[in-house]
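If you are new to this repository, start here. Below is one unmodified record pulled from the training split, so you can see the exact layout before writing a loader.
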Amino acid sequence: MPALEGQTVLVTGAAQGLGAAIARHLHGGGARLILMDRDAAGLAGVAAECRGAVSAVVDLADAADTARAIAAAVRGPVDTLIHNAAILKMEPVDGVSLATFQATLNVGIQAGFQLTQAVWPAMKVRGG
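And here is the target side for that same chain:
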């Protein structure tokens, strides 16, 4: 594992599965964590395991809520952004509503863009 002591890492989709495993692994390596997810209970559990983590409950499909969470949780330079959040509904294409399709795009692309815009300036100054 690379040296993570003192590094700040923002992880989305951190309440369960791969995102939670990533958060636990990085915390074990000494990283400072910013954790985001829409699952408040799951996020609280992971944050409790990762003492010192900053967490924000957020609906990344909503641009305004994403901006609010970024403003609330990102309090300094971020060294690494891991945008793990996704909407994964296994269903036939003819059963997917336009609203679900749009939310899926918003989480994956819009939120990724917003997060990157928020953290990139400090990353760039520090050598990207």
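Two things worth knowing about this chain: The helical segments are 17-28, 40-49, 63-73, 98-125. Strands lie at 8-12, 32-37, 54-57, 80-83.
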